[in-house]
Write the structure tokens for this entry.
Amino acid sequence: MDFPDDLMHLIRTDEPLGPLAWLGIGGPARFYAEPINTGDVQRLVTVAAEQGLPVRILGGGSNILVRESGVDGLVISLAGSISSEIAIDGTEMTVGAGAKLSHAVIKSVGAGLGGLEHLVGIPGTVGGAVVGNASAGGRDIGSAVKSVNAIEKDGSTRTMTQQEAGFSHRKTSLVGLTVLDVTFALEARDVLALTKRMQKLWISRNASRPTEEPRIAMPFVDPDGMPAKDLLQTVGLAGIREGDVSLDGQHPQYLIAHSGATSDDCLRLIERVREQVLLQTGIGLQLNLQIW
Ligand SMILES: Cc1cc2nc3c(=O)[nH]c(=O)nc-3n(C[C@H](O)[C@H](O)[C@H](O)COP(=O)(O)OP(=O)(O)OC[C@H]3O[C@@H](n4cnc5c(N)ncnc54)[C@H](O)[C@@H]3O)c2cc1C
């Protein structure tokens, strides 16, 4: 794989991905870049496409499980490197994909704009949240999106409407594209009331999370009509362990990577849980976690 001279300063080889993922495990990226401007992101995507090199976009790393073999391709990190700017115009807010979702939520609430406050406490970037249509309390981020600016696989840029982005339950048609920024259409509301609502949600979200465990993930999508937490408790899988990975005993919707955990442990645990749930309930649990 040959990168043009003007991109070489951005490219690192065999970059460990474990430290960049919330689960803290997994192998290296064959090529890795943290571009600082949109033009470089576009060039990287184009060059990789021309040479048939697979590309993966990294946000905050809170929803990925990297295999032990790592990624045989180019990983482009957008977390904090390219635009994390947030601009407000009336009731619209445009946010760079690399911005933390928590910053966007706090900024919108502080400006008296409602529509994102229910997402408080979800880790990661705005890009990651929009691509995976992150949701909380039964409401997804896609419902507040007006448009999405993204790079196509061939390197061309495109602005998509909410409809074109295809938001459905924890899914979008943005997978495989590189989201650069997102414009939200929000509603003018009372700042104090919004702030109180956000604080209340923040407290209840923290109470339903294993706070002592730094290396966690939320592997499953809530199936229709029942939170994954309740389902896993009902079928007796809370606390189940495989090697050095377990589901939390109190909050089984979270997977915990203990000291010594490997990606293979995670994959084995996930498969065991899915098999058991299918066997006992007939429900096919969908994965939220992206396996790299
Ligand atoms: C403690 C905890 C709590 C969580 N709570 C929730 C919750 O309540 N609701 C919920 O929906 N999720 C939740 N999650 C899952 C996760 O935080 C979200 O899915 C989050 O939106 C992922 O964002 P990220 O930036 O970390 O994405 P990453 O993990 O970096 O990436 C996830 C996927 O998005 C893609 N991606 C990231 N950025 C871009 C971009 N700019 N362009 C194109 N593709 C991109 C990646 O390629 C990857 O496939 C939780 C996770 C944890 C660890």
Q: What stands out?
A: The helical segments are 5-8, 38-50, 101-110, 126-131, 162-165, 191-207, 228-234, 263-281. The two ends are 20 Å apart (CA to CA). The chain has a mean pLDDT of 94.
